[in-house]
Amino acid sequence: MKRLLVIAMTAALATGMGYANQPNTKVTIPVNRTTATSGKQMYTSYCAPCHGVDGRGNGSYAPVLKTPPTDLTVLTRNNHGKYPDSHIAAVLQNGVEVPSHGTPDMPVWGPILGKMSQGNTQDRLLRISNLSRYVESLQVK
């Protein structure tokens, strides 16, 4: 009986150590209120931790993600020379299914920006538009 208890405790310890050695991939980005008129300020606060200040996917949180963040500087090039503004707005509004995000949340910035706008639809749309325009400014020529 004693031997069985020792084996069970050893197995439980080994299992616990195995889980402890797995990397923690949950990324939490602090959400502080920003101005709706500054796409750059919103990008720096919400996007740069993963996508990098330059938009190339090299943010400080990038190494802990399962899949590297998208290089936002080549969106136009990858879309046959046209910036995909409606797609970017939809991603900001609804999220996207990307394995690095774990769920469809990137996080989904639409509701977060909506809470900042306190129910003001125009303010939320202004935030999404200005953030999208700032990402457009990061495109490589």
Properties at a glance:
141 residues, Cytochrome Bc1 Complex, Chain D, domain 2, 50% helix, single chain, mainly alpha
What is the element layout, followed by pairings?
Layout: H1 2-20, H2 39-51, H3 75-78, H4 85-94, H5 109-116, H6 121-137
Helix pairs in contact: 2-6, 4-6, 5-6
Class from secondary-structure proportions = mainly alpha
Assembly state (oligomeric)? single chain
Can you count the beta strands? Answer: 0
> What sort of overall outline do the alpha carbons produce when their principal axes are compared?
globular
| Rg of Cα set | 20 Å
Q: Please tell me the overall pLDDT.
A: 77
Poorly predicted ranges:
13-24, 101-105
User: What is the N-to-C succession of helices and strands?
Assistant: HHHHHH
Reading off the top of the CATH hierarchy, the class is best stated as: Mainly Alpha
- CATH fold name: Cytochrome Bc1 Complex, Chain D, domain 2
Overall structural domain count: 1
- Main sheet attributes: strand count, strand direction, barrel closure: none
